[in-house]
Amino acid sequence: MNRANKTSVATPAAAMAAHNGDFMATQASQRQSAAAPEARRKMRREGPGSRLWRVLVWGAMIFFLVNVALMIATVTMNSFATRWFGTPLPEGFTLHWYAQAWRDFQLADVLWVTVEVVGAVVLLSIALGVPAAYALARAQFPGKKLAMLVFLLPLMVPPVTYGIPMATVLYKVGLGGTLTGVILANLVPSLPFVILVMTPFIEQIDPNLESAARIFGANTFKYFRHVLLPLLVPGILAAGLLVLVRTIGMFELTFFTAGPDTQTLVVALYYAVFSTGVRAPQSIDAMAMIYMAITLLWVLIALQFVSPTQLVSRVKEAPKGE
Question: What phi and psi, each to the nearest 5 degrees, are found at residue 87?
Answer without folding.
Answer: -120, 155
